[in-house]
Design goal:
alpha+beta, D-amino Acid Aminotransferase, Chain A, domain 1, D-amino Acid Aminotransferase, Chain A, domain 2, 9-stranded mixed sheet, 4-stranded antiparallel sheet, 28% helix, globular
Length: 280
């Protein structure tokens, strides 16, 4: 039988009795609950964004999949410049910009565009990595975009921390190595360098793209999970880490910290960043 009683005008939030129409969650938090949204992390070197067009293109692709509007490249560049100026980011060698697009109620809800500029996260010079028991779905609806739906990544991060690791690597449903929680993966096996195909389900990383452009000897391939014990050296890439050598996988030491290839590519990448700001 349907009750004729009105909905309670009071509720409990964190143990405190409040009026039911009192705001509890922000628009950003509601967007995260619904999972309707995406973000992009852009590095700023002395306040200047690197590879902004690449990041904007990926943001546009993700926004299209969610049915969300996306700022123009010109508008995004202007917003980043304004925030870099007001947040004194031009004084920092490296800063992190985050662009978030989210809806409070699916693609038909109010869309929020949030742009932030702040200090970068801290990462060690080398990474301790574990292999996860979970799998990325290479055919999933969110594959290849930076969705704010981070439940899987949160569980993976807890797993990494429980094992004293800085990062963790997913395989996909075909038991092929895929990607890290926040990173792309490059490995050396039998003296040759390779990285997973995008078809593995990994994110089309902007740093990944630039590393492949500057290092012709790295190839894309399928990397079976059962070859992980044969990895001799490896590194991670992301906009904030740039190129980060992997010191250990599941506690097994690699030669990455002393690998001359990685050192050379780290230098080449930083020169690529410098040239992008000096070119007319």
């Amino acid at each position: 039988m349907k009750s004729d009683l009105p909905t309670s005008p009071l509720w409990l939030h964190n143990g405190e009795l409040q009026e039911a129409d009192h705001g509890v969650l922000s628009a950003a938090e509601i967007g995260r609950l619904n999972g309707t949204g995406l973000f992009e992390t852009i590095p700023l070197y002395e306040g200047i964004p690197f590879a902004l067009a690449d990041h904007w293109e990926r943001l546009t692709t993700g926004a299209s999949r969610f049915g969300l509007p996306c700022p123009s490249l010109e508008s995004l560049a202007s917003s980043l410049s304004l925030l870099a100026e007001h947040n004194d980011a031009r004084q920092w060698p490296l800063a992190r910009a985050r662009v978030t697009l989210l809806s409070t109620s699916g693609s038909s809800g109010t869309v929020h565009e949030v742009i932030e500029v702040g200090a970068p996260p801290s990462h060690p010079e080398t990474a301790r990595v574990i292999l996860l028991p979970y799998r990325r779905n290479e055919k999933g609806a969110l594959t290849g975009i930076k969705s704010i739906n981070y439940g899987e990544n949160t569980v993976a991060l807890c797993e990494a921390r429980e094992h004293g690791a800085d990062e963790a690597i997913f395989a996909n449903t075909q038991d092929l190595l895929c990607e890290g929680i926040w990173t792309n993966l490059f490995v050396k096996i039998d003296g040759g360098w390779t990285t997973p195909f995008l078809s593995s389900g990994c994110l089309p990383g902007v740093t990944r793209k630039h590393v492949l452009e500057l290092a012709d000897e790295i190839v894309e391939s399928e990397i079976p999970m059962n070859l992980s014990d044969e990895i001799e050296s490896a590194f991670l890439t992301s906009s904030m880490r740039e190129i980060q050598p992997i010191a250990t996988i599941d506690g097994r030491e690699l030669s990455s910290p002393e690998d001359p290839d990685i050192s050379r590519w780290q230098q080449d990448y930083r020169e690529t960043v410098s040239r992008s700001f000096s070119s007319p």
